[in-house]
Design brief:
The complex is a heterotrimer. By secondary structure, chain A is mainly α. Helix content of chain A is 72%, strand content 0%. Chain A contains 5 helices and no strands. In chain A, helix 1 packs antiparallel against helix 2. Chain A is flat and about 55 Å long. Chain B is globular and about 60 Å long. Chain B has 2 domains: 2-119 and 250-317, D-Maltodextrin-Binding Protein, domain 2; 120-235, Periplasmic binding protein-like II (D-Maltodextrin-Binding Protein, domain 2, 3-Layer(aba) Sandwich), CATH 3.40.190.10. Chain B has helices at residues 2-18, 37-52, 70-78, 92-99, 135-144, 160-171, 186-195, 206-214, 262-276, 279-287, 297-317; strands at 27-30, 60-63, 86-91, 112-127, 151-153, 181-183, 201-205, 218-223, 249-256. Chain C folds into 2 domains: 4-143 and 244-408, no CATH class; 146-205 and 434-500, no CATH class. In chain C, 73% of the residues lie in helices and 1% in strands. In chain C, strand 1 (184-185) and strand 2 form a beta hairpin. The longest helix of chain C is centred in the N-terminal third of the chain and has 36 residues, at 107-142. The chains are: A mainly alpha, B alpha/beta, C mainly alpha. At the A-C interface, helix 1, helix 2, helix 3, helix 4 and helix 5 of A face helix 8, strand 2, helix 9, helix 18 and helix 19 of C.
Chain lengths: 152, 320, 500
């Protein structure tokens, strides 16, 4: 428990520093908003500036007292998370070229495998679900899902 | 007149020769959520095509929300420039955004403008119990005391409604930048705010106000059309009659991608021409609060470019 | 107002074919609500052309579409409770207590209680529409920019109930949500804020993208981590139904939440998501004496569900009395009326009594149908939890991607959802609640736009925010919701002392 709390505090402090940086970035980006004029006295920059200030102050408060948090994932956990993230980004990125059915079939199979599905079953369930939803959205609901070279 | 006749014959010939050019699958893309003006344009087209059986298979209506049509515009030019079956809904608001360079890197020449399907017209309205009875009076009163008249419209600074308001303010000798203008969320919010007395003047479109005016909930002072509009609005003067030279049609139309072939482009133009002559189309048009507005093919293309030019001038004059 | 139109309406709504369309609509609506991928507005947009092509008369079309709409508010709770993934915008708050109940093996109980609360909310709201629609129409007119702004202040005041033992995290979450609302075209000046030249960002981050990212994607990541650490256990499912005493105990919660939900729903510009959020936080403020909210309190399930159904029903009021849509979904329905050459407007009540009567009567019928249909279906839905994780979780992922892709047809918005999901995962690991983020997001835009519009109208005079009787009432309510529970708890503490 104690160990968890300490680990969580480190994580919280890192997040607090990131938020302080974000607050500064927000303030700078706000100063870049260009507009001819506004019909209201506050203008489009007022809210973002106010939020940047509030974010900065709260982030400092958070830095001082980060409170409790869960333990970070272990090495295998991190590997799994990174694997899932890469798989998702790559398959979604390729979706306009490979089509919905194939790319999402790969994604769903990969995730099924990460959750301990045995390879043949993972492939069956992954492509099965992808085909099912493709059919529902493309054929029944008339949506326009990305098409691959084979037309699906 | 003669020219029109020749055009008609030419159209007939082209139609005869390209009847087979009908795209296999037709789709109308609305660059917004379901329920808005783009959706209505697509539905008008799709329903009347189906009712008149001009196309064999029904036309699908799809949605791509973002930037009041900007995402759809970029999508068509960038991803589906040669799709012969795809038309995209547009309006004079699109021309305004193009004039203000708000459609990304592409300008109005990036697509092929097929034709208009109808138009609505700008109106200026006040509350039913307002002491102001005419547009002339309003302009005078406004000039005396701009702070006393909060104006509401369904768009931000630089939008069509804001432009209409700015023209009124200028006519009264006031600075558009100093207008007390509330940018409300669409026409419904504007009429509601007018009835509640939160704003004193409403800038909007005829279709969203006419029923409320008929029911005595608000008073339309003037219509921004060339001639008086039919129906209830026949009693309402045009802005021109009131001495204010403003005509503000809000046309609704469609465009296709830049790489669509001439044959397919012409097929669409002629299909629209044929469609607009049918009673089914006229019924659908009226149901959506649109008035007939003829502008097809090359005429329409030219008109869009002129509109963009006009809007650029207006925006500069208004100080944008 | 005479109630003749309603008797006439029951004659229309109870015709066998209309009863059937109502039933179909309720079933489809429940399904549409249940799937995170599609909400009521997409469902209705899809059904409308089918109904029109099939040549249904206007009242049947309206009955079909309306039943899809409120059916979706019933269905949205199902995936909120079972998977911690909100099925639609109005069901976000249902995750807070609904999912902990499911994890504790009380999924059936949570689903039945939320179903019954939806019924309470829908039914009370229909009664309000029947007798008071014109009155509420007048209230909607009274709300100008200043009133909307103060309403949002009130909503933020209810948020004080969400402040737990780590107020800084609640505040940061809320600020995060508020900041996201500033992305996109500024509604007042037309300026482009934080769009970085990308047209996908012109309309800002969409609510559905935020919600699916925060809840569904971060949930998948958390489950993956737990699985890798070997601590992921399948949920236990018990089939016990709630007791009558439980259903009675949520009655006043449902009544209060219906009141809030209905009023918020009536106002154009605020919808089921605001309604359920304010109802939940108000209920927590009033009733959370022992800190059970957020850990599986049945009132925490009842409040948002009663409120979102009441809001969906309330959204018909401006449509019927003012001819103005109260939500995106009712906007599509107004479009449906135009197909039939019926111009919506203030005369709808007098010109089309059969249509309006049929619609209102079908709401009575529809709510009963939904309750009857939903209770036995609970067992079917709960059995989804029996699916092994390697089938269930990829399914959640696919539906999340579909939900965003079909709405925006762009890979970019899927990536934005992933980004939000990753942030959500980190924040959840650090002990942040997702609810304040959602609340900040839901309330932020309405608050900023209306404050600025109010000041534009007054020419910069702050006084406009306190001028009208309605703003005064709302300020008083905002102060009361913060102070009254505090006084009560202090009094209790004092009374407890001498005893001790």
């Amino acid at each position: 428990m104690n160990h968890h709390a300490v680990a969580g505090q480190t994580g919280g402090r890192i997040m607090a520093v990131a938020l302080i940086v974000a607050a500064i970035a927000l303030a700078i980006a706000t100063s870049q908003i260009s507009y001819a004029f506004s019909s209201d006295p506050l203008g489009p920059r007022f809210f973002p500036y106010a939020l940047a200030l509030a974010l900065g102050l709260c982030a400092i408060w958070y830095l001082v007292s980060p409170g409790a948090a869960d333990a970070p994932p272990d090495r295998i956990g991190v590997l799994n998370l990174v694997g899932a993230a890469v798989l998702s980004v790559v398959t979604v990125g390729l979706m306009p070229y490979l089509g919905f059915l194939i790319s999402m079939g790969v994604l769903a199979s990969g995730l099924a495998w990460l959750f301990n599905g045995t390879p043949p079953l993972a492939l069956l369930s992954g492509f099965g679900q992808s085909a099912l939803w493709w059919f529902v959205f493309e054929k029944l609901l008339g949506s326009n899902l990305p098409r691959g070279p084979l037309g699906f | 007149m003669k020219l029109k006749f020749v055009g008609g014959v030419a159209a007939f010939v082209i139609l005869g020769s390209t009847a087979f050019a009908q795209p296999e699958k037709t789709e109308c893309l609305a660059g917004a959520k379901p329920g808005g003006g783009f959706d209505a344009t697509c539905r008008l087209l799709s329903n009347s095509l189906q009712a008149t059986k001009i196309t064999a298979s029904p036309m699908a209506v799809t949605y791509m929300e973002g930037g009041v049509g900007a995402v759809a515009y970029n999508h068509v030019v960038g991803t589906r420039p040669a799709d012969p079956g795809l038309v995209v809904a547009a309006s004079s608001g699109s021309a305004l955004l193009l004039a203000q360079k708000k459609f990304g890197s592409y300008d109005e020449t990036a697509v092929r403008w097929v034709g208009a399907l109808g138009a609505d017209y700008g109106v200026i309205a006040v509350a039913a119990d307002s002491p102001v009875k005419t547009l002339k009076e309003l302009i005078v009163e406004y000039g005396k005391n701009p702070a006393g008249f909060a104006i509401g419209g369904g768009g931000a600074v630089g939008s069509q409604d804001w432009m209409k308001a700015a023209l009124i303010a200028k006519a009264g000798g006031a600075d558009p930048k100093k207008m007390r203008y509330a940018a409300l969320e669409g026409g419904g919010a504007v009429t509601t705010a007018l009835q509640g007395g939160h704003i004193k003047i409403a800038a909007g479109d005829a279709s969203e106000m006419v029923k409320l005016a008929e029911a005595g909930k608000l008073r339309i002072l003037a219509v921004m059309s060339e001639k008086r509009l039919p129906g209830y609005l026949a009693n309402v003067p045009t802005a021109k009659e009131e001495g204010l030279d403003i005509v503000w049609p809000i046309w609704r139309g469609v465009y296709v991608g830049p790489k669509v072939s001439d044959a397919d482009y012409n097929w669409w133009v002629e299909t629209l021409r044929k469609l607009q002559a049918t009673s089914e189309f006229k019924k659908e048009q009226e149901a959506r609060g649109l008035y007939p507005y003829e502008s097809l093919g090359a005429d329409y293309d030219k008109q869009v470019r002129e509109d963009v030019k006009r809007f650029k001038t207006l925006a500069t004059e208004a100080g944008l | 107002m005479s109630l003749d139109y309603l008797w006439h309406g029951f004659g229309v709504a109870l015709l066998p074919q209309n009863l059937m369309y109502g039933l179909i609509g309720c079933f489809l609506g429940t399904m549409i609500g249940c799937l995170p991928a599609i909400g009521p507005i997409n469902g209705i947009a899809l059904l409308l052309p089918i109904a029109y092509t099939a040549g249904l008369p206007p009242e049947s079309t309206l009955i079909l579409l309306a039943s899809v709409y409120y059916g979706a508010e019933y269905g949205g709770r199902i995936s909120s409770i079972l998977l911690n993934v909100p099925g639609d915008a109005g069901a976000v708050m249902t995750t807070i207590d609904g999912n902990p109940m499911a994890r504790a093996g009380k999924a059936t109980e949570a689903l039945v209680i939320s179903g019954v609360s939806s019924f309470y909310g829908g039914m009370i709201a229909v009664v309000l529409i029947t007798f008071l629609a014109p009155v509420f129409g007048l209230i909607a007119i009274k709300f100008g920019p200043a009133e909307y702004f103060v309403l949002m202040v009130f909503a933020f005041a209810t948020l004080s109930s969400m402040v737990g033992h780590e107020p800084v995290k609640t505040l940061l979450g809320c600020i995060f949500g508020l900041t996201l609302t500033t992305i996109g075209i500024d509604a007042t000046s037309g300026a482009y804020r934080f769009t970085f030249g990308s047209p996908e960002l012109h309309d800002g981050i969409e609510f559905i993208v935020l919600v699916i990212g925060l809840f569904s994607i971060s949930e998948v990541l958390l489950l993956l981590e737990q699985h890798a650490a070997g601590v992921l256990r399948p949920l236990k499912v018990t089939g016990s139904y709630p007791t009558w005493a439980m259903l009675r105990s949520i009655w006043w919660t449902a009544v209060r939440s219906t009141g809030i939900g209905f009023v918020v729903g009536v106002l154009p510009g605020t919808g089921a998501s605001v309604a359920s959020a304010v109802a939940y936080t108000t209920e927590k403020r009033i009733n959370d004496r022992t800190g059970t909210f957020g850990k599986g309190d049945i009132r925490g399930v009842a409040a948002p569900e009663a409120a979102n159904n009441a809001a969906a029903t309330g959204a018909f009021v401006p449509m019927l009395t003012l001819g103005v849509p109260g939500s995106g979904t009712t906007a599509v329905m107004l479009g449906a009326l135009m197909l039939y050459n019926i111009q919506p407007g203030p005369q709808l009540f007098t010109e089309q009594p059969a249509l309006v009567g049929g619609l209102v009567a079908s709401m009575y019928v529809g709510n009963i149908l939904l309750l009857v249909m939903n209770l036995p279906l609970v067992r079917v839905f709960v059995s989804a939890l029996l699916l092994p994780n390697w089938i269930l979780i990829p399914g959640i992922m696919l539906l999340s991607i579909l939900g965003v892709y079909t709405a925006y047809s762009s890979v970019m918005s899927v990536f934005i959802m992933f980004g939000i999901g990753a942030v959500g995962y980190l924040l959840r690991k650090l002990g942040f609640d997702m609810a304040p983020i959602v609340l900040g997001f839901v309330l932020g835009k309405v608050m900023e736009t209306n404050l600025r519009n109010a000041l534009a109208i007054s020419g910069g005079e702050i006084g406009i925010l306190f001028e009208s009787p309605l703003t005064k009432l709302l300020w008083a309510m905002a102060i009361a919701i913060v102070l009254v529970p505090w006084f009560i708890s202090r009094r209790r503490a004092k009374q407890a002392q001498p005893a001790a």
